């Protein structure tokens, strides 16, 4: 069972979401046994929530199948039929729908909405962090601490070791947020994830969070 989706970096209530999913599936299937495991994954949505299947823009021979948005099994079967027809020169009624070069009105609206989210995130640099002191951090916790003009992504791993990095995502400069469920830093602008020590876990960022010194006075 899956669901209770949220945008990367904008929610830190994983336990509540897991419980909601479990309650939902148990209501449908009361005979379910004990839960074995739970996890949080990440999918990438295209701007109009429809996959890209077809010729890579600008190419006459390279085909792409991407933007599955969690529908990989469905698109795997569909793309096999669609790309086969395209290569053999046979018209397929779904080719235009999944064309990687398409432009749609809904896509434009979603593009504007997503970029407004990025602007809102960047404006957050003017606000205080969600931490007032490093002393607030218990093992497994993290938060953003303002130190003058800079913001520090501070966290402790489950063993209590403290990590201090810049809170600026190295992809496009947005501010990261702590994900207590996955024990990592998330960027809400484009979905990059970083380990507690700042190492990249998931792109599009390719560079780690920049390590920083502790605030003056060690606060």
- Overall mean pLDDT: 87
> How would you sum up the major sheet?
4 strands, antiparallel
Strand content: 15-25%
Low-pLDDT ranges:
none
Identify the overall geometry: globular
For this structure, the CATH topology of the domain at 127-218 is Rieske Iron-sulfur Protein
Instruction: Write out the strand line-up for the largest beta sheet, numbering strands in chain order.
Output: 6-7-8-9
Output the radius of gyration: 21 Å
Percentage of residues in helical conformation: 25-40%
End-to-end Cα distance, whole Å, is 43 Å
What's the CATH first level of the domain at 127-218? Mainly Beta
Number of strands: 9
Helix-and-strand structural type? alpha+beta
The number of helical segments is: 4
CATH superfamily of the domain at 127-218: Rieske [2Fe-2S] iron-sulphur domain
């Amino acid at each position: 069972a899956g669901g209770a989706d949220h945008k990367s970096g904008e929610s830190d209530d994983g336990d509540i979401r897991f419980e909601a999913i479990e309650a939902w599936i148990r209501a449908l299937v009361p005979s379910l046994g004990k839960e074995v495991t739970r996890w949080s994954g990440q999918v990438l949505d295209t701007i109009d929530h429809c996959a890209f299947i077809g010729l890579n823009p600008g190419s006459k021979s390279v085909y792409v199948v991407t933007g599955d948005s969690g529908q990989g099994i469905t698109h795997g079967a569909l793309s096999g039929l669609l790309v086969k027809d395209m290569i053999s020169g046979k018209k397929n009624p779904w080719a235009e729908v999944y064309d990687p070069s398409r432009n749609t009105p809904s896509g434009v609206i979603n593009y504007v909405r997503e970029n407004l989210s990025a602007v809102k995130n960047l404006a957050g640099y003017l606000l205080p962090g969600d931490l007032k002191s490093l002393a607030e951090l218990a093992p497994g916790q993290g938060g953003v601490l303002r130190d003058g003009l800079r913001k520090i992504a501070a966290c402790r791993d489950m063993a209590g070791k403290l990590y201090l990095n810049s809170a600026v995502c190295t992809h496009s400069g947005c501010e990261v947020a702590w994900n207590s469920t996955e024990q990592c830093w998330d960027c809400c602008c484009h979905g990059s994830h970083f380990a507690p020590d700042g190492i990249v876990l998931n792109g599009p960022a390719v560079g780690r969070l920049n390590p920083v010194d502790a605030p003056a006075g060690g606060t």
